[in-house]
Amino acid sequence: MNILQLLMQNPQQIINKVLGNNPITGNLINLVNNKDQKGIEQLARNLAKEKGVDADKMYQQIKNQLGI
Predict the structure, then answer these.
(1) Where are the domains of the chain?
(2) How far apart are CA 16 and CA 25, in angstroms?
């Protein structure tokens, strides 16, 4: 598939092609489409926990960097 064909697809199709239909990505897309903020936060917290990252600490660092 060339770049022009890729760009002519909808954003979800592009994400699926790039990430290989990853189930976590599919779940995230559904959460976003359903505007499920709590679900998105829980997904982020679960991913952070898997990686050994303190989600609250990371959130605070991001806020500090953005001046929020």
Answers:
(1) 3-66
(2) 8
CA distances from 19 to 3, 16, 23, 25, 66 (A): 16, 5, 10, 8, 28
Q: What is the pTM of this model?
A: 0.65
CA 11-13-15 angle, 5° bins? 70
pLDDT in tens, 34-64: 999 999 999 999 999 999 999 999 989 998 9
> Structure tokens of 52?
């050994």
CA distances from 16 to 6, 12, 19, 46, 59 (A): 11, 6, 5, 21, 27
> Using alpha carbons only, what angle is made at residue 38 by residues 68 and 66, rounded to the nearest 5 degrees?
15
Residue 49 structure tokens: 């926990």
